Automatic annotation (TrEMBL):
MF terms (GO), sorted A to Z: ATP binding; ATP hydrolysis activity; ATPase-coupled intramembrane lipid transporter activity; magnesium ion binding
Domain P-type ATPase N-terminal: 59-136
Binding site for Mg(2+): 445, 447, 884, 888
Organism: Cyclopterus lumpus (Lumpsucker)
Protein name: Phospholipid-transporting ATPase
Biased composition, class Acidic residues, residue ranges: 10-36
GO biological process, one term: Golgi organization
Keyword Transferase: no
GO cellular component: plasma membrane; trans-Golgi network
Entry keywords, A to Z: ATP-binding, Magnesium, Membrane, Metal-binding, Nucleotide-binding, Translocase, Transmembrane, Transmembrane helix
Binding residues annotated for ATP, in chain numbering: 445-447, 546, 588, 611, 644, 724-726, 858, 864, 887-888
Family classification: Belongs to the cation transport ATPase (P-type) (TC 3.A.3) family. Type IV subfamily.
Gene designation: atp8b1
């Protein structure tokens, strides 16, 4: 891709820097392959060296690709073919590997490994005071539930892989086409694709049913765009490979570049019948695209499976974990440390106790000749086992259950269901839900994500008069009108809507020559291709803009019917068809920002029609043109309404003038040096002194609710960056349309950004030397002036600013060898070292984060991922990426959360995403409702879970001071086993699944409720230690109040109830009441299920306790069940019931007081909204009854609304005649004399 610029002027804003989209591995590999540079020996330029094509494909020869020279080592001496098969594997397990791999992954969790070690310790009799089943049963349940969940997830991946790999395709084998599955396709196979087929691999186009192998493809799955692109086969293959027997005899050798991720480039050669033919991207059909408007085509598989460009662009699959997961792991480590310290302290206590008391107590003699230190050592391991419930084994499985439930709620949310294409929201992962409540940055694609990629002709200005608002045929303005009835025009597109009846009336009357000329220009000045299908006209445009303009002309009576290489035929106002001779077509490109066509009218007149951006058209207008000022005013109005505009003009040319220009044009076409520049200069000569007709205004339709969604997310302090491969003007225009950019923002472009960063860098170089290790950020802001700022930066400038420009391979290799010194001149624009490069990146991220909006345009898929990585790295922020095409996969995988827009043709983004839905507007509900609820529920669950386990476990600690630190447990063994599984799990699980402080409507009405999640204020180390001290306090109460009550006490029957088993029953019963009533205090949203869970847990406890304390079960299993009759004996004493009530009351009363004072004196935003919930709900009901106000734009300001979406049209294709000339009757015979421009002559040698 040529870049006509001087380096000092900066990068070309219109060029997407795909050359920088090379993977580092490829760059290193290619650099290392270069020969050593010998000093003194002249070397050819790097660009001119013949590069050996390492990838070789032989047509119709499967054994060729299994030759030893194409084998690569996999492991030790095991080798396999370097050519990938065409099957895709995204699953993790198969039947044989599931059990070992899943157990290996689960035991990578420290907690599971810890409990396995505990289980082994419990088998040792000298250490354990607890039976082995108290650990085995919870561990098996945890591993089983997690394993089943992983199995279900992997089965879904198996189904998706199977669906794709089992698609059918016609493959040429044994002299005929056979119906094979995609997975069975191999490199070198010849395949036949039919209309609407997905392309199964990266394929070299050989021939098609259209003339000259013209094949239309839809690239929605690659880039989200639905407008068609065309691909062409080589002329020689088109002529000789139409029949099956010819394809079967095809034996060409293809030599090309190795598999890579560059979507814009393909370089190779075809060696066939002794001749070499060059190959380019124009000859390739990429996997993921779809065949359109082509009945059949044939191709040769070049890259398959993981080697295809779409798969190479996916980036690395990263294992994503939430912030809460990471925090939870650190807290588990903290608990480990606390556990070891407590166990060590108690073991030391046991050593001293045994020396002072135990050794002299004859009744404790156990016939073991063990010293005090050794007994202390055994006591340490005994307490590790006894206190193991400080590390909750059921924590992880409970978290997984909660996440699974929250994912189901997302899937079942009818307000995120899109009925137009029957697409519900889908949580494709179950591990990231609470992270949705902590998002700080959203990175969004534009085409297909914010927009529908549908253009509609909305307004126009003709001869100084504006049209498009609801108006009667007489020109009377209306508040609300009805669409124009097109029944008078048999060729009209019935889907086209227009509200201004006066324009139709003026055109049909024939009295307004300017209006007729306006639509005649639209029907003639374009590069649209037309197809007649079932009596209907089907337009194929290089961009949706062009299609919308030609469709508008069609409805207003100027119907484009057909074109040949030299003519265009239209039908004017239901009259006879008219054919215009096309003398020249001056195509659009991003520098010219306009296109022109020179036509010879049937009456012999020669006229130039031109359409383009107002900024370039106004410079070329004739001094005699009229309506410049009024048209300019209308353009300002259109720009303020964020419509995309084009100015339309014409110029009459004399035959002599055209002849002179035509000679200059032909000379420029054959120029050997700077041909494009020569053509541009010739175009400038003829495109002058133009007469203005008017301007068109097209709406690039946003998806429903996009501006409102962006405004709501902004109130939640979420910053939105748009990363798009589209042009700068288009991206900026959409920024205004969706309210991301506003008129009161100061917009900074690449040059300004580079200058500010350069000055900061120079200040750092020449300023006082600071500690490089500290990496202190400058305190002064980049934009000290008050007001809002926005950045709009192109991919080229992004590389320039971040020093990401790739060097020539030779320079890179020399730098690796240490032969190139780092730049020392601060003016050379390069970093002094890696530290300075990192500081430059930090500066850019800081500057961007000071802005209200950031738009990165003309960026490659890899650059999208890099921008997301920078924000994650330097801001430590939680990021979300949303897109709909394969070019978004990299950033979707890089971000903490990836969201795919489903329901479009392209599903590649969805397959790589964590969440998927059909419309961008659903994002606010996903984050502000489901994300916030999930975060609050998970935080509340974790706080409570840690509390209840500390309160439960630390009773053993207090008890140890009264049992000689002997690792004796305070509870019954079965109570320890079932406490987390049955007695206290259900209420907290339901809080984690169902709790909500405010309803969904209030969540959306008050986006500020989202802020605690971003700040991480609901679960952190402070909350953890509050839970710890709360647990310590409760454990103190639970132990010492029953202890004091049992001390020197007599029951009603004259028996003392102060035995160990009765004490265990009272402490356990008090604990169950406290933890279940505590979760009741923390529950914000009560349902029947919550109430049932709390009461049911208490009932289950008493039911199981009375059963396992019964004489019957003791008779059957005497060893495990030793508390015979303990519960019934203890709980029949009113004194002990009073003890339980006192313990529960003293435990909960301080908590109730603290919560009351906190909500009264220091209420949070959520507390205030909860307090006034009824009032706000009534206000929302009133608002819903009222008519929603129309969206008001800001103040008017002058900016160009020009935003033409395509880079280059079908002009070369039309001029060459390849799309319209007939196939010669004799294969291999001489070609019909068709004029072709020299640019195409080099294509097929």
């Amino acid at each position: 891709m040529n870049r006509h610029r001087v380096d000092s002027l900066g990068p070309d804003d219109e060029v997407m820097p795909y050359s920088d989209d090379e993977t580092d591995d490829e760059l290193e590999a290619s650099s290392e392959e270069e020969p050593e540079v010998m000093p003194g020996v002249p070397q050819p330029p790097v660009e001119d060296r013949p590069s050996e094509m390492a990838w070789k494909v032989k047509a119709n020869d499967r054994p060729y690709h299994q030759l030893p020279e194409f084998q690569k080592k996999v492991f030790l001496c095991i080798k396999k073919s370097r050519y990938s098969g065409n099957d895709i594997k995204t699953y993790k397990y198969n039947v044989l590997t599931f059990l070992p791999l899943n157990l290996y992954e689960q035991f990578k969790r420290v907690a599971n490994l810890y409990f396995l070690a505990l289980l082994i310790l419990q088998i040792i009799p000298d250490i354990s005071t607890l039976p082995w089943y108290t650990t085995l049963i919870p561990l098996v349940v945890v591993l089983g539930v997690t394993g089943i969940k992983d199995l279900v997830d992997d089965l879904a991946r198996h189904r998706m892989d199977k669906e794709i790999n089992n698609r059918k395709c016609d493959v040429l084998l044994d002299g005929g086409f056979q119906d094979l599955k995609w997975r069975d396709i191999q490199v070198g196979d010849v395949v036949r694709l039919k209309k609407n087929d997905f392309i199964p691999a990266d394929i070299l186009l050989l021939s098609s049913s259209n003339p000259n192998s013209l094949t239309y493809v839809e690239t929605a799955e690659l880039d989200g765009e639905t407008n068609l692109k065309f691909r062409l086969g080589l002329r020689v293959t088109d002529e000789k490979l139409q029949e099956v027997h010819q394809l079967a005899e095809y034996n060409a050798l293809i030599e090309c570049e190795e598999p890579n991720n560059r979507l814009d480039k393909f370089v190779g050669t075809m060696l066939w019948e002794g001749e070499r033919y060059p190959l380019s991207l124009d000859n390739m059909l990429l996997r993921g695209c779809k065949i359109r408007n082509t009945e059949a085509c044939h191709g040769l598989v070049i890259f398959a499976g993981g080697d295809t460009k779409i798969m190479r662009n996916g980036g690395k699959t990263r294992f994503k974990r939430t912030k809460i997961d990471e925090l939870m792991n650190y807290m588990v480590y903290t608990i480990f440390v606390l556990l070891i310290l407590v166990a060590a302290g108690l073991a030391i206590g046991h050593t001293f106790w045994y020396e002072e008391i135990g050794a002299d107590a004859w009744y404790l003699f156990d016939n073991k000749n063990q010293g005090a230190s050794y007994r202390g050592f055994l006591s340490f391991w005994g307490y590790i086992i006894v206190l193991n419930t400080m590390v909750p084994i059921s924590l992880y499985v409970s978290v997984e259950v909660i996440r699974l439930g929250q994912s189901k709620f997302i899937n079942w949310d009818l307000q995120m269901y899109y009925p137009d294409n029957d697409t519900p929201a889908k949580a494709r992962t179950t591990t990231l839900n609470e992270q949705l409540g902590q998002i700080e940055y959203i990175f969004s694609d534009k085409t297909g994500t914010l927009t529908q990629n549908i253009m509609e002709f909305k307004k126009c200005t003709i001869a100084g008069r504006s049209y498009g608002d609801p108006t009667t045929a007489e020109g009377v303005a209306l508040d609300r009108g009805r669409p124009v009835d097109w029944s008078w025009n048999r060729q009209a597109d019935r889907k086209f809507t227009f509200m201004d009846h006066s324009l139709v009336a003026r055109i049909r009357s024939g009295k307004d020559k300017d209006a007729n000329e306006f639509f005649k220009l639209l029907s003639l000045c374009h590069t649209v291709m037309v197809e007649h299908k079932d009596g209907e006209l089907v337009y194929q445009a290089a961009s949706p803009d062009e299609g919308a303009l030609v469709t508008a002309a069609r409805n207003f009576g100027y119907v484009f019917l057909s074109r040949t290489q030299d003519t265009i035929t239209i039908k004017e106002m239901e009259e006879e068809e008219k054919t215009y001779e096309m003398l020249a077509l001056l195509d659009f490109n991003s520098d010219r920002k306009r296109m022109s066509i020179i036509l010879k009218f049937p009456d012999g007149r020669i006229r130039l029609y031109c359409k383009g951006a107002d900024t370039v058209i106004y410079e070329r207008l004739s001094p005699n043109t009229r309506h410049k000022e009024t048209t300019q005013t209308d353009l300002d109005v259109f720009a303020n309404a964020t419509l995309r505009t084009l100015c339309l003009c014409y110029k009459d040319i004399t035959p002599a003038e055209f002849e002179a220009w035509s000679r200059a044009h032909k000379e420029a076409q054959v120029a050997m040096f700077d041909r494009d520049g020569a053509l541009d200069r010739v175009y400038e000569q003829i495109e002058s002194n133009l007469m203005l007709i008017g301007a068109s205004a097209i709406e690039d339709k946003l998806q429903d609710g996009v501006p409102e969604t962006i405004a709501t997310l902004a109130k939640a302090d979420i910053k939105i960056w748009v990363l798009t491969g589209d042009k700068k003007e288009t991206a900026e225009n959409i920024g205004y349309s969706c309210s991301l950019l506003t008129d009161d923002m100061q917009i900074h472009y690449g040059e300004d950004i580079n200058e500010k960063l350069g000055s900061r860098q120079a200040h750092r170089r020449h300023g006082p030397q600071t500690s490089r290790q500290g990496k202190k950020k400058p305190t002064e802001p980049f934009f000290p002036a008050p007001g809002k700022n926005a950045l709009i930066i192109t991919g080229g400038w992004l590389n320039e600013i971040l020093y990401e420009k790739k060097k020539k391979r030779r320079r890179l290799r020399l730098r690796r060898l240490g032969k190139r010194t780092p730049p020392s001149n601060p003016q050379d624009g390069q970093p002094m070292d890696d530290w300075e490069k990192e500081m430059r990146q930090i500066d850019f991220v800081d500057m961007a984060c000071e802005c209200e909006a950031v738009i990165c345009c003309r960026v490659t898929p890899k650059q999208k991922g890099n921008v997301v990585s920078l924000v994650k790295k330097y801001k430590k922020a939680v990021t979300l990426s949303i897109g709909d095409g394969a070019n978004d996969v990299n950033m979707i995988k890089t971000a903490d959360i990836g969201v795919g827009i489903s329901g479009q043709e392209g599903m590649q983004a969805v397959m790589s995403s964590d969440y998927a839905f059909a419309q961008f507007r659903f994002l606010q509900r996903l984050l502000l409702v489901h994300g916030r609820w999930s975060y609050i529920r998970m935080c509340k669950f974790l706080r409570y879970f840690f509390f209840k386990n500390f309160a439960f476990t630390l009773v053993h600690f207090w008890y140890s001071f009264f049992n000689g630190f002997s690792a004796q447990v305070a509870y019954e063994d079965w109570f320890i086993t079932l406490y987390n599984l049955a007695y206290s799990s259900l209420p907290v699980l339901l809080v984690g699944l169902l709790d909500q402080d405010v309803n969904d409507k209030l969540c959306l009405k008050f986006p500020k409720l989202y802020l605690p999640g971003q700040q991480g204020s609901l679960f952190n180390y402070k909350n953890f230690f509050i839970s710890l001290f709360h647990g310590i306090f409760i454990s103190l109460i639970i132990f010492f109040i029953p202890y004091g009550a049992f001390l020197q006490t007599m029951g009603q029957d004259g028996e003392a109830p102060s035995d160990y088993q009765s004490f265990a029953v009272v402490t356990a019963s008090s604990l169950i009441f406290i933890v279940n009533l505590q979760i009741s205090l923390d529950t914000s949203y009560w349902t029947f299920v919550n109430c049932f869970a709390v009461l049911g847990s208490i009932a289950i406890y008493f039911g199981i306790m009375f059963d396992i304390h019964s004489a019957g079960i003791h008779v059957i299993f005497p060893t495990p069940f030793t508390f015979t009759g303990a519960a019934s004996n203890a709980l029949r004493q009113p004194y002990l019931w009073l003890t339980i009530i006192l313990t529960v009351g003293i435990s909960l009363l301080p908590i109730i007081c603290i919560q009351f004072l906190h909500k009264s004196i220091w209420p949070s935003v959520g507390d205030k909204i909860q307090r006034n919930r009824k009032k706000y709900e009534m206000e929302m009901e009133v608002e819903e009854r009222k008519k929603p106000p129309t969206f008001q734009r800001g103040q008017r300001s002058r900016r160009s609304a020009y935003a033409f979406s395509h880079s280059r049209g079908y002009a070369d294709l039309i001029s060459s005649g390849r799309s319209i000339r007939l196939r010669p009757s004799g294969r291999g015979g001489p070609q019909s004399s068709i004029r072709e421009i020299p640019q195409r002559e080099a294509e097929n040698i």
